[in-house]
Design brief:
Layout (H helix, E strand, L loop, with lengths): L1 E3 L7 E10 L3 H8 L8 E5 L7 H4 L5 E2 L6 H4 L15 E2 L4 H4 L14 H14 L8 H7 L12 E8 L5 H4 L1 H6 L3 E5 L2 E7 L6 E7 L5 E11 L2 H11 L23 E10 L2 H8 L2 E3 L2 E9 L1 H7 L4 E7 L6 H12 L7 H13 L1 H12 L12 E7 L8 E8 L5 E6 L4 H20 L3 E3 L2 H4 L6 H5 L33 E3 L14 H18 L1
Parallel strand pairs: 1-7, 2-3, 2-10, 3-7, 4-17, 10-19
Antiparallel strand pairs: 5-6, 6-13, 8-9, 9-10, 11-15, 11-18, 12-13, 13-14, 14-15, 16-17
Helix pairs in contact: 1-18, 5-18, 12-13
Length: 527
């Protein structure tokens, strides 16, 4: 069942076998693993079914490092969490991503791909993904000759996009009908309470914005609040240990990582249509397969670089019918409303080139390929892993939110390895494009990466918050162990990208779900 805590009595104690904090992808997925069992599961969610301005304000934070937009607009306190914002892109981490790389300090997971693969299969089913199809096979099926990149330098692969990425709508009815799962909305968790020895969690405290308080007691607890809020909650829960929960070695909040996005420059295509055939998404059934260019493991080793991927993007010209249609569509669904003059101009742009709209519609529905405009800029964008840095961190601010909790203070830092990886990747790609006569890059923007100030202005975050409760078998080097259990606490787990020791260059949600399957399996063994 799903209920609003506003309707409960003040001081209510919620008892269960397992208490999950957060009803995003992680929390909902763990809860679903216990559907129909004889175990009682409680889920505490700060938001409701729809976004709420006052609840969202609880995320307001202080920035003391690089600018970071995702800390505000990349998080959602709502049933479904950030899956309500997410497009659904899924790609597994490689075994190489999980290995110790001697040139990347603090790298290496206590897990291998072989450990994660069975859980990845289950995560695929949650997201309704299909079989992994190599890029070359997709090209063959669609009658496209793939680019002959030097495989020692560049590789092609495809991510998949979930057809139902919003967990708030995909699983709402299922959880409403569940007899053994109780999800409480507007239940803002404010503290984790441990026993006097700080060896076990005894309860979790929560409250509504109106001041109604509650407490949750369970045999086991899982924190599923994302890479920033997980660290905030652990640090703020300092009633017994002034350092916070799980922070006996001053690791909580450190090693904050992101996927660094940089627009590397524009491409002058030799044959635009051929590039579109190579790099536009493929559709098979309900699944979208998006082509990605990755830097080979060999180059990463030889040049001591990080994991990175890139995409070729096709932007419409400002006066194109595609741009006009998108603007009109947003207006139709209430996201914006153009003035009368703009409305006439947009309709005029649509009517001026109906052939392009018909061509793109035919390509999408008949050819099963993404439709991108026939004119406009072509650009290359990169998504780069970060090297773990203990000084890039989440801390607590002196200011407090409306619940009395100290706000987040984020010090996001980038280093030389990220800059060098993006620069080398862009130059390698430019050389390969020119060698294959696919086109030429304007490398002036890439040259800006050599400027240590300019390059951080080019970089921006991806709202992929990772690393703040890192996984390591040794308590001196990690907050959680390989089972995602917090070191020193017998019954507290973290289901979040906060536990990632390194972040690969792949979107994190699929790996979060795989780790949550491991947590659920571990809890079933312990019950």
């Amino acid at each position: 069942m799903i209920e609003y805590f506003d309707n409960f009595e003040n001081g209510t104690c919620v008892k269960s076998d397992l208490c999950i904090v957060g009803a995003g992808a992680a929390g909902i997925s763990i809860a679903r693993e216990f559907l129909g069992t004889h175990y009682e599961i409680s889920v505490l969610e700060s938001g409701g079914f729809d976004g709420d301005t006052e609840t969202q304000k609880l995320y307001q934070s202080e920035l003391v490092g690089l600018p970071h937009t995702g800390i505000q607009i990349g998080r959602a306190r709502v049933f479904g969490g950030t899956t309500t914002l997410w497009g659904g892109q899924a790609l597994r981490f490689s075994d190489f991503d999980l290995q110790k790389r001697e040139w990347v300090s603090f790298s290496g997971w206590p897990l291998s791909r072989a450990d994660l693969d069975p859980c990845y299969e289950r995560a695929d089913r949650i997201l309704q993904l299909g079989a992994r199809i190599p890029y070359e096979k997709l090209c063959a099926a669609f009658g496209v000759e793939p680019p002959a990149f030097d495989p020692s330098k560049l590789c092609m692969q495809c991510s998949q996009w979930s057809p139902r990425p919003n967990f708030g709508t995909a699983f709402r009815r299922e959880l409403k009908r569940a007899n053994n799962i109780s999800a409480l909305l507007h239940a803002n968790v404010t503290g984790i309470v441990t026993n006097e020895a700080a060896t076990e969690v005894s309860s979790i405290e929560f409250t509504t914005l109106g001041g109604k308080k509650g407490v949750a007691k369970a045999r086991f607890y899982v924190i599923c609040c994302g890479g920033i809020e997980t660290a905030r909650l652990l640090l703020a829960s300092n009633r017994i240990d002034r350092r916070g929960v799980g922070n006996q070695n001053d690791l909580v909040g450190r090693y904050f990582q992101e996927h660094v996005h940089v627009r590397c420059g524009n491409l002058l295509a030799t044959n635009r249509k051929y590039l579109q055939n190579l790099f536009e998404s493929f559709f098979q059934g309900r699944l979208k397969h998006a082509p990605l260019i990755t830097l080979s493991e060999r180059v990463q080793r030889e040049k001591r670089l990080l994991s990175i991927l890139g995409t070729v993007g096709f932007e419409p010209a400002p006066d194109s019918c595609i741009t006009a249609m998108k603007t009109l569509f947003r207006a139709a669904i209430g996201k914006s409303y153009p003035g009368t003059a703009d409305l006439k101009r947009l309709i005029g742009n649509v009517l001026a080139d109906p052939g392009e709209l018909a061509s793109l519609t035919y390509r999408l529905y008949a050819k099963k390929r993404a439709g991108t405009p026939n004119r406009g800029p072509i650009y290359f964008g990169a998504q780069c892993e970060m090297a773990p840095n203990p000084e890039s961190r989440v801390m607590l601010s002196d200011s407090r939110d409306s619940l009395g909790m100290r706000r987040v203070k984020l010090d996001w830092r980038l280093g030389e390895m990220e800059r060098r990886t993006i620069s080398e990747f862009a130059i390698t790609l430019a050389h390969e494009f020119e060698r294959l006569k696919l086109g030429s890059f304007d490398l002036r923007q890439v040259a800006s990466l050599d400027d240590p100030i300019r390059w951080t202005e080019m970089a921006h975050d991806s709202a992929h918050h990772m690393g703040t409760a890192r996984m390591h078998e040794a308590p001196q080097l990690g907050v959680v162990d390989a089972n995602c259990r917090v070191h020193g606490l017998a019954n507290l787990y973290v289901g979040s990208s906060a536990v990632f020791p390194t972040g690969s260059c792949s979107n994190p949600t699929l790996t979060i779900l795989a780790l949550c399957m491991r947590i659920a399996d571990r809890l079933k063994q312990l019950f």
